[in-house]
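Hi everyone,

Forwarding the result from last night's run.
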Amino acid sequence: MAHATRSPSVSIAYWLTALLLVFGLLAFLTGTFVIPGIPAPQVDLEGTKPLLLVLVILLGTKLLLEIMRPLFKAGLRDRFRTEADVFSIFQVVGYIAWIGALGFSLYVVLGGNFAQIGVLGGAVVFGVVLFILQEPLLNCVGWAILVTRRVYKLGDRIEVNNTKGYVVAISPMNTTVREFGGWMSRDTFTGRYATIPNKSVMTSAVFNYTKDTPFIWTEILVSITYESNLPRAEDIILEAANEVVGDLMRDNKDSVRAKYEFRDLATYVIEEPTVRWKMKDSWVELGVVFFCPAYRKGYYESEVTKRILEKVSDEPNVQIAYPHTVSVPFSKTVPHAVVPAATLPPSE
């Protein structure tokens, strides 16, 4: 029959009780602790002092490892994929702790200085605990930065380490977001939550879509053939964008400009849809730039795209460029004058 695994709290209580009983017994035998009605034995333990200290070291090591086990698991959970990996690392730490305890014990038996043992042991314990708790400590520092610097807050749309989401909870350890984007082609909610360690504000770039304004800039690229009427293509794209977001941009241009830190930056704010041109190998790329509410970015991009396609389909002098392949069959009947010499078959 399988035995139930003892909980961490029970193990800690068990070994703590054992250590306290040893201390109590030593105090009673040396007369330091007196039980009413029972005469103190006044035993001289000077000769067995090293062995008793070894017993305390071993019990203390076991108690320390039991205390560290749940802390270790909590501190490294986000750094490894499975609990088996965390357990393997803890085993290594346990071996190191026992080697250190046995080394201290040997040092005591051979007549080492007790004061030096205490200082060295305390330094080792402090180093191990600091190593285990470095992730929780960094997360707490990151949380303090979030609270004081307002890097982001509840309700903001952020991106950290390629994870994008709507902030729904901030704790001292991590930030929880309702993810959007991910495997979706647009900024649409995926239906899952993502957890971001707070230390990321110190180690990674944090993008806040809605820190000071609910609007975000976006761009739609349209490929137009060189043979098209390019000025007319620009007019069509501007008409489509203005029908969808033109009034929205003009109504909110002042609030967007007011959020810029410097006056020269505010002068660069685009107040209405604008088209940028760029030459490509086989087409001209026309990009329409506009801003819209961050939470409806996908919707406005889709609407502007539909309007552009509708208008282009009604304009015979504007053609969308797209990659395609033309196959030309080779014929021996083609006159040599129109066929490059390098492509002619060898003469018989």
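The mean pLDDT is 78.

Cheers,
N.
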